[in-house]
Please model this.
Amino acid sequence: MKSFDLQVKNVSKSFGEKAVLKGIDVFIKDGQFVTLLGPSGCGKTTLLRIIAGFEKADAGEVILSGEVISNKSPAHRPINTVFQSYALFPHLNVFNNIAFGLKSHKVPKDEIEKRVNAMMEMVNITDLKNEMPATLSGGQKQRVALARALVNEPDILLLDEPLSALDANLRKKLQVELKEVQKKTDTTFIMVTHDQDEAIAVSDRVLVMYQGAIVQDGTPEDVYEHPVNRFVATFMGECNILESERIADKLAKVAFGELVLEKDPQWAATTEGANAGKCCGGIAIRMEDIHVCTPNESFENNVFDARILERIFRGDYWELIAELPGVGNAESLKLRVMTDPDEIYNPGDNVKLYMEPQYLQVLDD
Amino acid sequence: MSKRKLPIFATVLAIIGFVLLYLPMFLVVEQSFNASKHGQSWGGFTLDWYTGLASNSMVQTTTVNTLILAVVSTLIATILGTLLAIGIHRTPWGKKVGYFYDMSINVPVVTPDILMAIALVSVFALFRSWTSVFDPGMLTMTIAHVTLEISFVVLVVQSRLVSIGKDQIEAARDLYASTAGAWFRVIIPQLSTAIISGALLAFTLSLDDFILSFFTSGPDSQTLPLYIYGSLKRGVSPQIHALSSIIFGLTLFIMILMVLKGIRKERKLLKLTQSPKG
Model:
């Protein structure tokens, strides 16, 4: 069987003076669910549009199953798109919307009927067959758009923020459905989103984009647990970033003391400013990874005194703002800590916080 | 539901408005059934003016001329106007050129008809020195009418076109349609109501145009408005009232049809929105 691997080779694109993509290199294996994740303006939609053929890259190539498709029109690429706005055809009913691509390819009528019906069944919209798009709800439109693209059995399905127009509950439900459909059809899905929860929930692989470049490429767990830099760390959810200085092998100094690390920081020495000559960088720790010690717990290292300033109810957890007094002439530091709903700490309480070395992520910058 | 009381001032204004709008038409219809030929006094009911129309050959020829002119010029203006609107929408030469196009489309709309008529007369005179095809007649009138109508068609079609997002074309291309296929299968069907409105507007513009026709017509291409104007100089014949009443009646009929269709459409939509959806 032919495999539909997609290779994006050194693709660059500028709009006027602004460089939107700076030499993107990606290899996407057949059957993966890949997410392009990043804030607006990071170039993720442009990359998707270059793969689809709506935009031409200034440099570089798009290669599908070994064939260069960079110069092909979207009509000649075995790739289909689910648009952010759905872009359903308002003058056609649901059936004819879904059948549009098959009709373009002059597929025999009875086969169109069969394939469209099967697809409508897969995404649960059989009873909407004769409805016009204007009468559909957001979730229904989304399903029609998905069916309209998938019925053509594309090698790759592109999804441009497919769930962004839906409310939170429906979005969660459709994330699950999307994942199921992807597995059932065994098609490569490439989805653009700015929502890191969504990316984590559905993808096999996340490509985090920032300022026209891919800054991290990995599984959702990997990207969440081991962010490479400050941008990824903060973009992937609530995170404390500690300004640190490397003082010895796997040992860093921060405002409230010294941290034992699992990995030795590779920071370069700063050349100018007050820190000249020192090797400084960031260490990230997620709020759920900071442990509030109970009285009879004890750890070898990385335990620090702190005072609770505030307690915020977040539904399924408490968020604590803890102040850690500075060592020497360093100023005190406020950290965000997550605790279980049944662990009650009150503002004013003095506690000990433990930061396990494996959760301390040494960042590149 | 409690009835809201209208302020007297608004009621009076509304009545004055309706009277001003419809009293003249009402008088024309009344006169068309009035047996007395002159003056405003009621001389008894008659259908003579209507039956007289049937034997008036001038009325028949000018009516036929008017309709031919309206239909032909509307067809040409609608096709050219739609293509022009699409062309302007797709202009590859940037925004500034687009603005220039928009302006050049708007100028004929705001230019006084008389100016346009005189301009056309001069152009036709120039052409006539090379070929007699441009002698005053149906051809010159058709060109004049198309010139007037085309801007209106473009404006109507354009306003719909800009509301169709570019993702529609992209979706069609994504689903393997050729460029032409995308236009014929996706964009033109969505433009159809705008094209029809543009055509209707062009048709009515042509039907009641006087100034352009007056300046560009020849002896054998008299239209109804020209004929009515000519016969007015010999005093208003009640036959003209009868003719006007028929035209008024037809217009009213079309209006009522359109309103009824609108109501039906609204009901259908209402029913759709009421049915439960998951």
